[in-house]
Amino acid sequence: MNKLNNEEKINEILTRGVEDVFVLESLKKKLLSGKPQIVKLGVDPTGPNIHLGRAIPLRKLRDFQRLGHQVVFILGDFTAQIGDPSDKLGKRPMLTKENVLENIKNYKKNVGKILDLKKTKFVYNSKWLAKLNFREIADIAESFTVQQMLARRNFKDRYEKNEEISLREFLYPLLQGYDSVMVKADIEIAGLDQLFNLKAGRVIQKYYGQPEQDVLTYQMLEGTDGRKMSTSWGNVINITDEPNDMFGKIMSLRDELIIKYFTLCTDLSLVEIKKIEQDLVSGANPRDIKMKLAWEIVVMYHNKKEADKARDYFVSVFQKKENPDEAQEIKAVVGEKLMDVLVREKVVSSNSDFRRLVEGGSIKINGEEKITDPFFEILKTCLVKVGKHRFVKIEV
RNA sequence: GCGUAGGUGGCGGAGUGGUCAAUCGCAACAGACUGUAAAUCUGUCGCCCAAUGGGCUACGCAGGUUCAAAUCCUGCCCUACGCACCA
Question: Which of the listed residues A286, A319, A352 is the one where a domain comes to its end?
Answer without folding.
Answer: A319
